Amino acid sequence: MPGTSDSPQPDGLAKLVEIMRRLRDRETGCSWDKEQTFQSIAPYTIEEAYEVSDAIRRGDLEDLKEELGDLQLQVVYHARIAEELGAFDIEDVISAISAKMIRRHPHIFGEAAESPGWEALKAAERRGREDTSALAGVALALPALKRAEKLQKRAARVGFDWPDAVGPRAKIDEEIAELEAAATPGERAAELGDLLFSVVNYARHLDIDPEAALREASTRFEARFRKVETLSQSPLAELDIDALEALWQEAKRAL
């Protein structure tokens, strides 16, 4: 019987799957773990993926090992919930991705002389689905900047794109003017969204990852703001805008 002291202990992925089974046990499991749903743990899944990315960015392989484990736990967690619902289990997940990787590499696992291209293979798969739009399958849960970029790239593949960066740059000025002319909070929110979408489009034409660029900008802001805090002899709330700007420029020179 799984989980008894005289049962052989599973290794690797099987061990993690068994741990999750016990955590989710209706009678003896963890009160928190067994109450979770796809929806409640989805934010943790996204968070863990970002922590993996952060460990890679920092070049911290020890931390990367731990974060990959945390991300793997999320996969096992979702699979266990699905298994309880009778939908699929972890073996089905692994089988599906294995089949997909083989299918998308016919030049390695099949008889094709060369790869037809990753995106061409994905497009062929989409043609077998009900939604045949070029934009089909761009996940709603993606970070907003990344989703905007992916939508634009998909549209560009079918010719819906500017020929160079001039058009997207002009569009930014147009959207700023429309934002400034907006009369209501709803209109301003819509125009600001259009402006951000246009900035992403401009970044794409400059071959810049907007998500990474904004992340680095946030990191710079945090470092400089912390420097401002150490430089100031008074609480920041007591300083006027000129004093704050002077401190900010000093922080920028230091960092």
Give a verbal description of the structure.
The chain has 255 residues and is mostly helical. It is 67% helix and 0% strand. The protein has 11 helices and no strands. Helix 2 packs antiparallel against helix 3, helix 7 packs across helix 9 and helix 8 runs antiparallel to helix 9. The longest helix has 24 residues.
SSE blueprint and pairings:
Blueprint: H1 12-23, H2 38-58, H3 61-84, H4 90-103, H5 106-109, H6 118-126, H7 144-157, H8 166-181, H9 185-205, H10 210-231, H11 241-254
Order of helices and strands: HHHHHHHHHHH
* Distance between the amino and carboxyl termini: 60 Å
Radius of gyration: 25 Å
Beta percentage is under 5%
Mean pLDDT: 90
Oligomeric organization of the protein chains:
single chain
Major beta-sheet overview: none
| Shape field | globular
The unreliable regions are 1-5
Number of strands: 0
Which structural category fits the helices and strands? mainly alpha
Give the count of helical stretches.
11
Question: Level of helix content?
Answer: 55-70%
